[in-house]
């Protein structure tokens, strides 16, 4: 037996209805969990996967791979310019793992929703 949630009057009540009808709270929780998960996956890639790849590649640090583009001017100062493709590859690995985790979670929750 579900009792209706008492509504606050006026603008506060409108805001309360907005939060409950649009699932804004669930969305906010999802964003917070997503941010924390991204940090976790980034640590996984940087601290575990990249060193393993480095071991396979004879001690090479994947994130440090780069090609020199020569000298250039940045903010009025001469500096070395690099194409940091190793960092980009590391970021792609990070992205693929995040997407795999999201896919698995969606499959789990979608199955749970279909069972109800």
Name the CATH superfamily classification.
Large-conductance mechanosensitive channel, MscL, domain 1
Number of strands: 2
- CATH architectural grouping: Orthogonal Bundle
- Indicate the CATH class: Mainly Alpha
Low-confidence stretches: none
* Rg computed from alpha carbons, rounded to a whole number of angstroms: 23 Å
H-E string:
HHEEH
Q: Biggest β-sheet: count, sense, barrel?
A: 2 strands, antiparallel
- Shape descriptor reads elongated
Helical stretch tally: 3
**Fraction in helix:** 55-70%
Give the terminus-to-terminus CA distance.
Answer: 18 Å
- What is CATH's topology name? Non-ribosomal Peptide Synthetase Peptidyl Carrier Protein, Chain A
Structural class: alpha+beta
Number of structurally distinct domains: 1
**What percent strand?**
5-15%
- Overall mean pLDDT stands at 81
- Read across the widest sheet, the strand sequence of neighbours is 1-2
């Amino acid at each position: 037996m579900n009792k209706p949630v008492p509504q606050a009057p006026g603008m506060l009540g409108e805001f309360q209805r907005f939060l409950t009808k649009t699932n804004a709270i669930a969305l906010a929780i999802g964003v917070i969990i997503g941010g924390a998960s991204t940090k976790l996956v980034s640590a996984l890639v940087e601290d575990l996967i990249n060193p393993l790849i480095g071991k396979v590649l004879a001690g090479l640090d994947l994130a440090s791979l780069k090609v020199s583009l020569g000298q250039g001017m940045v903010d009025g100062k001469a500096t070395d310019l690099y194409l940091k493709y190793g960092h980009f590859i590391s970021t792609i690995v990070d992205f693929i793992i995040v997407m795999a985790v999201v896919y698995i979670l969606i499959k789990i929750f979608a199955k749970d929703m279909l069972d109800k």
